[in-house]
């Protein structure tokens, strides 16, 4: 049985208040706050990392990666082994240690820069030296969620894969999402909808796809599996010692106690057996959000909601094909980390780069934006109109993230011109893929982000959050405004030349022959843009 627990007492450690240096700015904490980073420029930023309750994007609190780390552009590093609360204003940084007495430390990197602070911080979340399955990077990912929410079938999955290939898109990793099993906690294909899962997976493999399936740490309470797991004490118990029943987006369920080694051994056995019997390659590990766990829950190990969230992610790291949307304190781990479900809006599109930057600076290098066009299923009701321009611009942003993922089938929702524009973006990704893969390996060795803010290498450009660097040598400035006919691009110091876009289906639109051709350095250029334009530059000196 789990040991009864109570809510941890309030911290007796003193609050720390530190003045900010002149021009000092901060990143870190919760990825959901990416649009508001860097902190300290104006206003006040506040977040309680123990529950992820904060000052911004309340609907997404707890819905993405978070970590007990803050780093500044003047080389300062804030760290704790446990969650803490922070408030940042332009004048000062206030730190409140966590409720279980773990201190918060503040240190100064020898290199007083953003990069210096990040590299110093990796001592607390060192890289494992491994990567997620390389196929998650080499081809697009395709998820069934928006095409067939809550009701995937063998026939529909195979039709989805065939439509991808027939449209001229390359194969990649195909994820079968929510409700492929008979019940939550039953990790077998529902034979009514998947009469021969092994044959389906074999056919997908033959088409060039690798296959992942969606799982959550929930168990339907009115089931034989629930009764069996309850009798073995493998389920989370609440503060009173009763099996916890939690409300989540699919209803009410019991929760696996993933801090219990016996639970992990059981689940690992179930999932490995599924892989052996069907050929499935790995798993999309959904949920694990801090909101699913309450103070006072009786875990086998740990006392805070962050403990099972971290344990869920660390279990996922034992599988090469993995994906997470929510996690706590797993910087440096070989985990594919996706941004939370986005609505189909231009504002959501503009959040991708700032949140991707926040992912990297909190130690999560292997990142993916949400599904292209948006992954919020509520926006795709029957008859909903697809903004094809937003879909294309989303695809252009995603194309040069470390990973890229579709769910809506481009061939179904796009006309020929917009589909061509998506293919052009994927062609550019294919051109740069060898360098992206080199950066993936570099991240595994060093922990450095693959996608980086300009300020990581160029102090003084801290407020540029609509462009990013791939490593140190590739500058990407996607168009993110509806109806745009031009794009303002900040060119850092050094010598940069535009990368020309080539495609069998597209004549280059001339961007490389505009003022952005030539050799540029430490300037701002304004480029005319068309639907296919994805401004990208290479550092040549």
Number of strands: 28
Which outline best applies? Answer: globular
Q: Characterize the biggest β-sheet.
A: 6 strands, parallel
End-to-end CA span: 63 Å
Mean pLDDT, nearest integer? 92
**Helicity, in percent?**
10-25%
> Structural class of the helices, strands and pairings?
alpha/beta
Strand content: 15-25%
**Rg, please?**
23 Å
Tally of helical segments: 11
Low-confidence stretches: 1-8, 55-60, 503-516
Strand order of the largest sheet: 17-16-12-11-10-21
How would you summarize what this structure contains?
With 541 residues, this protein is α/β, with parallel strands linked by helices.
Description of the molecule:
The protein has 541 residues and is α/β, with parallel strands linked by helices. Helices cover 25% and strands 20% of the residues. The protein has helices spanning 114-121, 135-138, 154-166, 197-206, 224-231, 261-278, 306-316, 346-361, 388-399, 410-413, 416-446, and strands at residues 16-19, 26-30, 45-48, 53-54, 65-72, 76-79, 85-88, 92-96, 105-108, 141-143, 173-176, 210-215, 218-219, 245-248, 251-255, 282-285, 321-324, 327-328, 337-338, 367-368, 405-406, 451-452, 468-470, 474-476, 486-491, 496-498, 523-528, 536-539. The longest helix has 31 residues, at 416-446. The radius of gyration is 23 Å and the shape is globular.
């Amino acid at each position: 049985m789990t040991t009864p627990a109570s809510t941890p007492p309030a911290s007796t450690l003193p609050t720390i208040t530190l003045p900010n240096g002149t021009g000092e700015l901060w990143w870190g904490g919760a990825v959901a706050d990416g649009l508001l980073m860097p902190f300290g420029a104006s206003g006040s930023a506040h977040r309680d990392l123990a529950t992820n309750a904060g000052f911004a994007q309340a609907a997404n609190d707890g819905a993405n990666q978070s970590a007990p780390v803050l780093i500044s552009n003047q080389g300062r590093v804030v760290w704790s082994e446990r969650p803490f609360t922070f408030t940042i204003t332009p004048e000062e940084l206030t730190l409140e240690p966590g409720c279980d007495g773990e201190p918060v430390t503040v240190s100064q990197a020898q290199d007083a820069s953003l990069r210096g602070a990040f590299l110093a911080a990796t001592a607390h979340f060192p890289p494992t030296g491994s990567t997620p399955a390389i196929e998650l990077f080499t081809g697009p990912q395709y998820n069934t969620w928006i095409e067939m929410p809550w009701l995937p079938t063998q026939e529909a999955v195979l039709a989805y894969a065939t439509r991808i290939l027939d449209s001229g898109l390359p194969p990649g990793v195909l994820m079968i999402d929510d409700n492929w099993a008979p019940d939550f906690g039953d990790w077998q294909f529902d034979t009514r909808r998947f009469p021969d899962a092994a044959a389906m997976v074999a056919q997908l493999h033959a088409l060039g796809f690798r296959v992942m399936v969606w799982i959550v740490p929930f168990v339907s309470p009115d089931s034989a599996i629930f009764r069996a797991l309850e009798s073995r004490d493998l389920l989370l118990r609440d503060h009173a010692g009763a099996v916890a029943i939690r409300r989540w987006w699919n209803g009410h369920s019991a929760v696996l106690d993933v801090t219990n080694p016996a639970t992990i051994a059981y689940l690992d056995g179930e999932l490995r057996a599924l892989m052996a019997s069907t050929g499935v390659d790995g798993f999309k590990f959904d949920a694990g959000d801090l909101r699913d766990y309450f103070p006072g829950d009786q875990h086998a190990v740990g006392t805070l909601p962050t403990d099972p969230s971290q344990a869920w992610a660390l279990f996922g790291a034992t599988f090469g094909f993995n994906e997470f949307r929510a996690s706590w304190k797993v910087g440096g781990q070989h985990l594919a980390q996706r941004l939370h479900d986005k609505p189909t809006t231009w504002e959501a599109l503009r959040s991708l780069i700032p949140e991707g930057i926040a992912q990297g600076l909190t130690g999560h290098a292997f990142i993916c934006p949400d599904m292209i066009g948006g992954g919020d299923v509520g926006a795709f009701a029957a008859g909903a109109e697809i903004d094809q321009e937003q879909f294309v611009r989303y695809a252009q942003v995603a194309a040069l993230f470390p990973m890229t993922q579709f769910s809506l089938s481009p061939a179904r929702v796009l006309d020929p011109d917009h589909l061509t524009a998506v293919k052009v973006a994927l062609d550019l990704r294919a051109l740069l893929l060898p360098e992206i893969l080199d950066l993936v390996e570099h991240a595994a060795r060093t922990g450095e982000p693959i996608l980086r803010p300009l300020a990581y290498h160029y102090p003084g450009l801290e407020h540029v959050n609509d462009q990013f660097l791939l490593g140190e040598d590739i500058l990407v400035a996607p168009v993110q405004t509806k109806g745009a006919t031009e794009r303002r691009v900040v060119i850092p110091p050094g010598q940069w030349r535009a990368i020309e876009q080539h495609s069998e289906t597209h004549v280059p639109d001339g961007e490389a022959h505009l003022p952005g051709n030539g050799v540029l350095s430490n300037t701002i250029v304004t480029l005319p843009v068309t639907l296919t334009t994805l401004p990208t530059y290479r550092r040549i000196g």
